[in-house]
């Protein structure tokens, strides 16, 4: 049976220009020894001797390196405990039944094996079998239930950083709300936190903050995802300086990626140019700036809290009528701004507004000030237009006084003399009555002419006998109403009347309204004669 001991991962690419298929080694890959996958369990194979040669194998650039022939001879002596001939033939060796080694390079196409994973599991088993080794927390949780505080203590006993230290004062490069901040708080009291949610709820945003906070604590962070696109989105959310430190291995099977090359180069460059003293100074400077920013933030928050508290604080009466919240006091001041504003005028003048004698008088009056005098500040003088007539009215009154009097009738002159001799109160009452009389005259003048003539006759005394009977009208109307109720109503049947008869009746009715009188047999009008001929009874 023939098999290959030394292998290295390779890829096949197609040259777009020539169409050739090019076989190239995978970037950052190295030679791998695959003896344990085939020879484990055989008596002639010593696996411990094989492991001591892994460092020597890494010095070879590829399975085609000239040092591989020397390595194979050394491997045969240590792993097999025998000398095995090594030929430099490039052709596959013929099967002879004897153990032999040959360079014989070949391109092997096969599925990716699980040998590395098996080896990793073997290392885990060997470590777990050691008496002094402590069982890993993840493995222990598979067989028994462990509470959060026990999990934290378990991690600390293995030398891991305490979760509470990782969650203390985290450094988030991106804004974080209360829900996102609680995640790091929960991480401080447990060995792990599960965060679930639909797309677009900020999970990637939260992971970026957690990664940055853990990296700032000197931790290594492993991020896994089913799809490489999710890792790329997460990488883009990190600060630029941290993006260069993220090593992505999602594209190794396709020959690596530019991001991986840049990350490795950046890490190597920073490690080479790292100066502990300069780094410590930078950290101290940034820490001081952050503490100053936190102090300013605390001061601003305290100011905001004080302002909010002042908005609801009920102040006692600082002045008569001014109490309650600041907003209420300000509203009251705004309502009285015009009344309590400063007096208009210049604040400063070259000459004092008061002479020395006036100033001494002012001081004397102030010394005589009493509490009763202080109440006058709340008093107000009435407006002049409510006390005195208008300027036009005063002018007309003065003109009337100075105008020469005309010759008045004796009755009018007597009335004027009477008015001049009364006091001011009586004169005001007369003036009010005259106003009432004028309003009544205006009402009468607005009536039809018949009513105006009737009013003139009443005022002239021509129909006093009729006017004297006016108070009796109410009594007469009430008697007529009572008699009408007593008589009651009766149904009257009248024969049909022609249109000509109706016209005759209407003509006779109009004649009566014009003042015609009912005549006997002689001197009757034509309308009355036509009505009598109807014989209506």
From TrEMBL:
<dbReference type="InterPro" id="IPR041677">
    <property type="entry name" value="DNA2/NAM7_AAA_11"/>
</dbReference>
<dbReference type="Pfam" id="PF13086">
    <property type="entry name" value="AAA_11"/>
</dbReference>
<dbReference type="GO" id="GO:0004386">
    <property type="term" value="F:helicase activity"/>
</dbReference>
<dbReference type="InterPro" id="IPR027417">
    <property type="entry name" value="P-loop_NTPase"/>
</dbReference>
<feature type="domain" description="DNA2/NAM7 helicase helicase">
    <location>
        <begin position="177"/>
        <end position="294"/>
    </location>
</feature>
<protein>
    <submittedName>
        <fullName>AAA family ATPase</fullName>
    </submittedName>
</protein>
């Amino acid at each position: 049976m023939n098999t290959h001991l030394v292998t290295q991962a390779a890829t096949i690419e197609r040259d777009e220009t020539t169409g050739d298929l090019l076989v190239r080694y995978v970037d950052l890959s190295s030679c791998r020894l695959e003896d344990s996958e085939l020879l484990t369990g055989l008596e002639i194979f010593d696996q411990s001797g094989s492991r001591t040669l892994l460092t020597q194998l890494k010095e070879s650039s590829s399975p085609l390196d000239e040092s591989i022939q020397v390595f194979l001879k050394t491997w045969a002596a240590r792993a097999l405990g025998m000398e095995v001939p090594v030929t430099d033939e490039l052709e596959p060796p013929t099967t002879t039944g004897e153990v032999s080694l040959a360079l014989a390079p070949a391109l092997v196409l096969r599925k990716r094996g699980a040998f590395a994973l098996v080896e990793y599991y073997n290392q885990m088993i060997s470590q777990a079998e050691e008496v002094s080794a402590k069982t890993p927390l993840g493995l222990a949780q598979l067989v028994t239930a462990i509470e959060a505080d026990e999990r934290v203590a378990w991690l600390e006993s293995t030398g891991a950083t305490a979760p509470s230290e990782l969650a203390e004062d985290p450094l988030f490069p991106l804004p974080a709300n209360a829900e996102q901040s609680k995640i790091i708080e929960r991480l401080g009291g447990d060995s792990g936190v599960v965060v679930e949610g639909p797309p677009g709820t900020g999970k990637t945003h939260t992971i970026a903050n957690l990664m940055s906070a853990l990296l700032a604590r000197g931790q290594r962070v492993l991020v896994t995802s089913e799809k490489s696109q999710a890792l790329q989105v997460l990488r883009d959310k990190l600060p630029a300086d941290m993006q260069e430190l993220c090593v992505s291995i999602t594209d190794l099977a396709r020959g690596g990626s530019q991001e991986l090359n840049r990350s490795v180069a950046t890490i190597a460059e920073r490690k080479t140019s790292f100066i502990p003293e300069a780094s410590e100074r930078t950290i101290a400077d940034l820490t001081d700036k952050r503490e100053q920013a936190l102090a300013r933030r605390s001061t601003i928050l305290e100011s905001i809290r004080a302002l909010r508290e002042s908005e609801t604080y009920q102040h006692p009466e600082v002045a008569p009528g001014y109490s309650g919240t600041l907003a209420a006091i300000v509203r009251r001041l705004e309502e009285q701004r015009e009344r309590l504003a400063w007096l208009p005028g210049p604040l400063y003048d070259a000459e004092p507004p008061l002479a020395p004698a006036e100033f001494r008088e002012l001081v004397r009056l102030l010394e005589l000030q009493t509490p009763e005098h202080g109440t006058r500040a709340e008093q107000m003088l009435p407006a002049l237009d409510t006390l005195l007539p208008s300027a036009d009215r005063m002018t007309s009154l003065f003109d009337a006084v100075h105008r020469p009097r005309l010759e008045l009738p004796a009755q009018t002159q007597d009335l004027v003399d009477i008015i001049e001799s009364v006091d001011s109160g009586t004169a005001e009452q007369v003036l009010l009555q005259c106003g009432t009389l004028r309003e009544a005259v205006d009402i009468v003048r607005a009536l039809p002419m018949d009513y105006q003539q009737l009013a003139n006759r009443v005022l002239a005394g021509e129909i006093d006998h009729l006017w004297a009977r006016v108070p009796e009208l109410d009594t007469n109307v009430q008697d007529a109403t009572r008699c009408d109720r007593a008589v009651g109503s009766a149904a009257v049947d009248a024969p049909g009347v022609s249109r000509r008869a109706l016209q005759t009746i209407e003509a006779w009715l109009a004649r009566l309204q014009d003042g015609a009188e009912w005549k006997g047999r002689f001197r009757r009008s034509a309308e009355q004669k036509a009505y009598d001929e109807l014989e209506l009874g």
